[in-house]
Structures are given as structure tokens and as C-alpha cells.
Structure prediction request, 469 residues.
Amino acid sequence: MKIAPAFSPARLAAVVPLVAVLLATGCVAEDPPDPAEEPEGSGEPAEAEREAYVPATRFDTSAAVTLQREGSKEGRIAPVALHEGTVYFTDSTTLHAHDAFEDKELWSFKTEHPPRHTDRVTHSASLVETENGPVVIGAIETQASAEGTAEEKPHLEVIAVDAESGDRLWHTVHESESGLRLAPYALGADGEHILVRYDGVRALDAKTGKAVWNNPDIRPYALQGGAVVGDTGEVPSELRAVSADTGEELWTVQDYDEHRTEAAGTSGQPSEGFLLPPASADPTRSAALYPAGSGRVAFVAGEVRDWTAMDIQIKGGLEPEVEYGTLLLIDAETGAVEHTVDTTPEADRPQDRHQWGDSDCAYDGKDTLVCWENTEEEMVGTRAVAAVDTDSGEVRWVEEFGEERPMIDVTGVGQGALYAEVSGEPVTLSLEDGSDLATEAGAAPDLTNGFIAVTYGEDGALTVHPVVG
Prediction:
């Protein structure tokens, strides 16, 4: 199915003033632009009537564009952003925009200070929807030079650019205030604020980029429903949510026994609307949080010890018999569990069930969370994949690839589609029922917006394909 590019009232409001300026250019003289405010590059993308494909199932390899960025010794990938046919990406000093259809750079903006690191990923590009339309955010860690014996302190530089016009809206520099520094990334916009992960979570004024508040006591994962949800980054870690408006704590889980008593009440049975237990009481194990749309986040129990998994399941209203694979859909603003899902597939061998805890998940941006077994070592036997409806909490399908169907290597998720490779050949699967949508897909991208798709390569390379079906 093809979908024409959306033109929201917010985006219309951003374009009307620009149209007015253009109509008036014959009568009104304008001051020459400040060279310091002008981006490097060739300006506006070429006009073209293009449509988005949702779900995106096939990709044109003959028209692929490869962009080279700095690599990372750890092999980590700096997030990129997509808007129609444009890909936005960063390196250690610059935010770039590249028209993938025309294969030309549109603009680039540099940081004020030199990079703090060149061999690590401490930068990102993201697209946030503000009240005035889509804005590209480049978040880059830099380091200002110090005089004398003063300590050189790390800084967060944030560059905001109008995605429609390519005009730089603002560029602000913020000194690090906490020892807990994360790879910087814009989580999204909420009302008048843009929320950025760095030394905890920072709220910046969406119009000026000035700091509004900073909460260093959370390691944020998702912005949903007016709440920033994450954990404390400690061992053992505790789940926490803060208000996107004020930065004040909304809920946290500190004392399991207290919350268990509140949940059980006088009957001794779990009730709906209770808070979560700690993410993991064992520092050698893991759990994860993911955005899940509609004001929700998904808590996926990692490979935890039996008694911790049992606690999680009791809190989720399950009989504590299933040791792994528990997934909880949570109201981000209250911490209440809305749905509890057991996604563990039936397995004859204990190691298959054990491996399920080592998984990745992704939200498709529509209504599905998909999780799959993941390991750095070569998979032997089967790989489980599960798709969950985030609105109803129902499991759409669970399959052990490697039994009746061949083993797949999952690469990414798009609206309604799962991208993977079978023996190195790209395939596209449906998130509705797990069936094949395209067996000659051309590429197995990491992400797509229906216009273009991006595949991450080695040493920072990006390959961008037009979507053709």
C-alpha cells in the first residue's frame, strides 16, 4: 500500500510564514544573510512527487547511495534520522543532510568545539515532531579548551534544523553536570520541550535550545505519554520515570516488598495497576525498556535468575512457572502494568528457553513490538521471534525459525514489516502473521520511513536504498 506524504496542520503552520515571505520578496529588501548562519552545501532538495510504501517490502539496490562516516572501535552505530528522501547523520563534529534520491549533500552544520572522542560514538541525529513541524536534532559531545591548569570539561552541543527548509533554528552548548554521561540522543519533543539524553536527561526549550531542567538521576530509554522512562544506572538498577514537563519524579521502584504488599492487598493475590519490581537484582543479568507507543513502554525481562524472574511474573499476575520471556506493557506516566505477556516459545531443550533472555526488541512505530533471540555467537538450532500487539497485549505470533522454516538473521523493523536475511539473502516478513511479504527484497534494512531505507555497514558506512514496493 502506498501512502502520500502527510501534511499536518503543524507543518502547514510552519510553511505559511515562509510563503508570505516569498510573495513579498519583490517589494521588501532583506539584509544579506550572516555567513556564520549559512550551512555548507547546496540547499533545498529537488522537488519530486514521491510516495511512501507502508509496509516497505522491496528496495532498489541499483540506485543505492553509500555514505561514509567515522567508524567506532566498539562497532557501535550512531543513530541516523530519515525525513521523506533525506537522511540525516552525524560525525564527531558535524550534522549532515543528504538527499538520497539525488545523491547530494543538502547542508551541514559544525560544532563550536572540537570532538571529545573520534574513536567512539558520542553523537547522533534524530527527527522530532514539534508544534511547528519536524525538526532535525544533532546531539554531539565535544570538549572545550581550558586555560592554564583548568580541567577540560566535556560539553553537549545540540544543533536544531528545520527539516522542511534546512534553516538552522538554534545551536546551543551545555557543560556536563554529571559523572554519568551517555551517548547523546534526542528522545523526542513534548509540548515546549525537546528531551535529550546525555548526563541523565535534559529538557531544552524547543524554540531557543536553552536549558529548562536537567535530571542526572535517570538513565533514559524512552519518552512516552509525557514521561521519560529509564533506570538509575546503578547495580542493581531500579526503574524510574520523570515528568517531561518538569523533570520531577513520577514513579520509581525501590522496595519490592512494599509494592508487593500494595499489589496483593488482603487477598494475597496480585491486582491490576501495580508497580514493577526492580529491573534486575543480579548485576550479571539484564532487562530492557523499549518505546511501545500510545503512552506505553515495554519492559522485557532479560536473562535473570529464577527467583527474580519469578518475582516479575508474580507482579505481572502470572503463575511463576515460566522462567524466561516475560514482557510487560506499562503505562509510562503511572508505572502501572497494562498487559503481561509470556512470549517464551515452547522448547524441548532447556538452552533454547535460556537463550530467549538474550534478546532484542523493536517497536514498529505503529502497533507492534517484535522481539527476537540475539547473540554475538553463531546461532545453532533455532531462533525464536515473537510479535506482540501493543494495544491489546495479544501475541500475534511466535515462531522458532530453524525448525520448519529456515533460520533468519533479523536486521530491523518498519511499520508492519520485519527485515531479515536467510543465508545472506534479504527477505521481508509480515508483522501481522509472520508470513513472507517479499522473498526478493533487494535489501534487509536496519530502518526505513517508506521512502528510503538505511542499512548500516562496517566502519560507519551507511547504504541508503529507495523503497520501490
User: Anything to note?
Assistant: Residues 9-24 form the longest helix (16 residues). Residues 224-381+389-401 form one domain. Helices lie at 9-24, 256-264, 306-315, 350-355.
